[in-house]
Amino acid sequence: xxxxxxxxxxxxxxxxxxxxxxxxxxxxxxxxxxxxxxxxxxxxxxxxxxxxxxxxxxxxxxxxxxxxxxxxxxxxxxxxxxxxxxxxxxxxxxxxxxxxxxxxxxxxxxxxxxxxxxxxxxxxxxxxxxxxxxxxxxxxxxxxxxxxxxxxxxxxxxxxxxxxxxxxxxxxxxxxxxxxxxxxxxxxxxxxxxxxxxxxxxxxxxxxxxxxxxxxxxxxxxxxxxxxxxxxxxxxxxxxxxxxxxxxxxxxxxxxxxxxxxxxxxxxxxxxxxxxxxxxxxxxxxxxxxxxxxxxxxxxxxxxxxxxxxxxxxxxxxxxxxxxxxxxxxxxxxxxxxxxxxxxxxx
Length: 347
Ligand SMILES: NC(=O)c1ccc[n+]([C@@H]2O[C@H](COP(=O)([O-])OP(=O)(O)OC[C@H]3O[C@@H](n4cnc5c(N)ncnc54)[C@H](O)[C@@H]3O)[C@@H](O)[C@H]2O)c1
Hints:
- By secondary structure, this protein is of the alpha/beta class.
- The chain contains 11 helices and 17 strands.
- The protein has 2 domains: about 1-120, Rossmann fold; about 125-300 and about 315-345, Dihydrodipicolinate Reductase, domain 2.
- Nicotinamide-adenine-dinucleotide binds near residues 8, 9, 70, 73 and 186.
- Nicotinamide-adenine-dinucleotide binds near residues 8, 35, 71 and 75.
């Protein structure tokens, strides 16, 4: 039996609890939140026996094998490092950290203690992206030439996820003072992984970040709304391919859309998670001359939560571990520098 402690009991923690509850041989032993009502609600819903307000008390429980960190972004690094030092395996939410320096410290700590680490790149759960990575890396479509990847949300204009003006869950994401790296750190990190997982490492970026007006004096209560809400990134990959990657919260009419097109010299593929998580579109062979696309279904693949538990059982760290995600953190930092200096930056 693997015993899990969940740190942070907000919205996403319920997804973690549900996922771990569904894995045989895995039990949630404790949860924690500085907001007692949230921790109590998570504990009630998933019958969690131990509830804490201080995460250090949770870490002190020797029966807890692994922790899930589901707190706001600036807490990921200190909580992960404390967990690793306590000998716990760590599944951490994205972004891994708020700087490359912190991400590196997390990688070093994990190596030193020899624990399993993973980051919750949720969209790797889609069989379509796993298949896309397999197809591209097998070389069957030839050399990658052009890549387009978009992650589009609209919670600043639509109320499908509630009213952001009255919800701390959205307000902290809009405020650098609350540790947010804006849309770049929130969902830009997902789409950078989504593109570079199949295509390979990013070499250079030229990034435009925008923070558009959204409230009088751009402030709501104690939240200064200064975090970027659109990121447009021109990318060159190490393999020579080029592309564009976009993340925005202003895509009115799109709730949570991820798309990826990879065009190679012998074929192309497209992943569109709104269309299907379980299939992708392929244009290959003679079809490239007729620009004809065919749907290809993709076999089921394990979720990040299942991979994390399997890694603990086997002792073999499956991706994406902290080391891989620290590379993405490097791309995020390069994007910030590129925007600040209005120049192309080497990652
Ligand atoms: N992988 C994904 O697809 C995905 C989706 C949503 C959110 N997330 C990530 O999950 C994390 C949490 O997001 P959320 O939407 O659940 O936010 P949230 O605001 O709903 O939840 C965060 C919780 O952490 C608690 N918290 C704050 N400080 C704490 C502390 N010191 N100790 C214990 N608890 C503390 C807060 O009280 C809150 O309940 C973020 O890093 C976010 O980027 C990832």
